[in-house]
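Late entry, evening session. Most of the bench is empty. Finally got around to the prediction I had been postponing all week. Sequence below, unchanged from the version circulated by S.P.
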Amino acid sequence: MRRFGTSARLPTGHGSVPRHWRLRRYRARDLQRVEWILNPDGCAARAELRRAFARLELPLHVSVETYNYELQLRLIARGRGVGLVPSRLVQRSAVRSKLRILRVGDLQFPMGIWMVGGEQSARIEPLLKTFRQALVRRLSPGTLP
């Protein structure tokens, strides 16, 4: 197992919200009555959000569960709730102009990228190195299509 990068996929302390929300600093308590549009259970970010709300003794209201990020973003843009979506997917979304990134000061979502594998032969190490470098480049800010 080897850590080889930090994911730009989940911006620390951010969430996607409809464009009509005011831009200001939010706290988790400000979000205790909103509906969330999230990946189903098993998603690391959702689990971290649930733990953060539990630590603060706040309810987490999930109204929609789907693995389809574009569907999540379209529902968020229509005002159906807030979400926790990778920033690179927000940037590529057809509805990105209808979304805002919400800064939530007391929610942190550090995510790392790990490669897990068994004993590797020396023959495939160059391939793994190339893959790691390409992934780091792809996830770096400013490199998205």
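Two things to note before I forget:
The longest strand covers residues 2-6.
Residues 34 and 125 are 47 Å apart (CA to CA).
Will write this up properly tomorrow.
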